[in-house]
Design a protein that fits this description.
By secondary structure, the chain is an all-alpha fold. The chain is built from 17 helices and no strands. The chain is globular and about 60 Å long. It starts with a helix and ends with a helix. The relative contact order is 0.15.
């Protein structure tokens, strides 16, 4: 029976890892559908290469930083318990690699390729696992301090703050250091319109992310005996709440509609295992409206050129999710309890600080040392031709 249970856990978390791996295709196509056609190839290449460099960084450094254990032992040791420790690494890696995928959408269309790969390695190797270890492994006594101070440790079941919040706030640092795309904001005060290049691709990316998210959330239980249908239903309700809110607040805009479910899912990650489904619906609806409103404010009023709106989507909605777990997770609001609003608030603020400081250091040093922005000529040409020497539709250029 022990062997059967162990094998079941291995299969369970492996399927979760595969589902979250598929989400990276969603990140790619969401970006492909949003950026201009001259940058579509670059979007596809970036996500795959970021995932690859993230794997190396997390295997050799990041996993050790977060959990204090590595893989420099014999294969016979690694294969114990059916290799559960290996598939757990795979699962957590897909979370870690989501950080560069999130950042990619914010800095699209003008970031240098290789400096971004280097930044991804440092972020996944050091910055992200530092906060991951604080929350999910109790490093440096952080969770013990929160529990002693406020009655409960910080709860972030599937990473509203640990993954999405950290990724979104690092992206904000990167976007601010990088600056807006050339011609996006005119000197006379006008704003150049860059509508999504392909709504079908954007929608495909959103759907891939949405489906994979049920592996992201449900499989965060990590063992089959801990699986909870509550997590699945709460994820569904938050997704629906985000969609409907984005539909209304975004006035039928298809870009907002397809990002709405993602906003809801980002927000529900933290408390998906303790909220009542109505609390999850409210959490998702608030996130969907928050995303649409703040995306508009960020782009038009504050003139922050965050191409895919990753700061409002992941940064703000992730922070809201961390706080929402401390509201809708309370027994008085139908939740399961065992959560403290103050712990959620302090933990969320800590994640924001780590992300902003870490992102500013990584991208600030790279900007000073090698530069992080493409030349004006390359940016005008587009990253596809400037970096990869091919466009997304070469047959048109060749007269096929």
């Amino acid at each position: 029976m022990d062997a059967v249970n162990s094998s079941s856990d291995v299969l369970f978390i492996l399927l979760g890892a595969i589902m979250v791996l598929a989400m990276h295709g969603g990140f790619a196509f969401l970006e492909v559908g949003t950026v201009r056609k001259k940058n579509q190839v670059n979007a596809l290449v970036k996500i795959l290469c970021d995932f690859s460099i993230s794997t190396v960084a997390y295997f050799f450094v990041g996993y050790i930083v977060a959990y204090g254990t590595g893989f420099m032992v014999g294969a016979n040791v690694l294969a114990e318990n059916g290799g559960y420790g290996l598939v757990k690494f795979f699962f957590l890696l897909t979370f870690a690699a989501a950080i560069p995928a999130i950042i990619s959408g914010g800095i699209a269309e003008r970031a240098k390729f290789y400096p971004q790969l280097f930044a991804s390695a440092i972020i996944v190797g050091v910055v992200y696992p530092f906060f991951e270890g604080l929350v999910w492994n109790g490093n440096f006594g952080f969770q013990e301090w929160l529990e002693a101070s406020f009655g409960s440790p910080m709860r972030d079941f599937a990473g509203s703050v640990v993954v999405h919040g950290v990724g979104g706030w690092i992206a904000l640092s990167a976007v601010m250091l990088l600056g807006a795309r050339k011609g996006r904001y005119r000197k006379e005060g006008g704003i150049a319109s860059h509508p999504p290049s392909s709504i079908p691709f954007l929608a495909l990316g959103a759907w891939m992310l949405t489906v994979g998210w049920f592996g992201f959330n449900v499989m965060s239980a990590q063992t089959i005996d801990a699986i909870s249908g509550l997590v699945a239903l709460n994820s569904l309700m938050a997704m629906i709440g985000g969609t409907l809110a984005a539909l209304v607040v975004g006035r039928n805009d298809p870009g907002f509609v397809h990002n709405g479910p993602l906003a809801g899912l980002v927000a529900v990650c933290a408390g998906s295992d303790i909220m009542h489904p109505l609390g999850a619906l409210a959490t998702g609806a608030i996130a969907g409206g928050l995303f649409v409103y703040m995306f508009t404010v960020t782009q038009n009023r504050w003139k922050i050129d965050d191409v895919l709106g990753v700061w409002p989507l992941h940064g703000l909605c992730g922070a809201w999710g961390g706080i929402a777990a401390g509201i809708f997770g309370l027994e008085s609001l139908g939740g399961m309890g065992g959560v403290s609003f103050m712990s959620q608030l302090v933990g969320t603020i800590a994640g924001i600080i780590v992300a902003l400081v870490g992102g500013a250091i990584v991208y600030g040093v790279l900007k000073s040392a090698v530069g992080i922005r493409m030349s004006e000529e390359d940016e005008f040409m587009g990253a596809d031709l400037a970096i990869h020497k091919v466009s997304s539709s070469p047959e048109k250029e060749a007269g096929w």
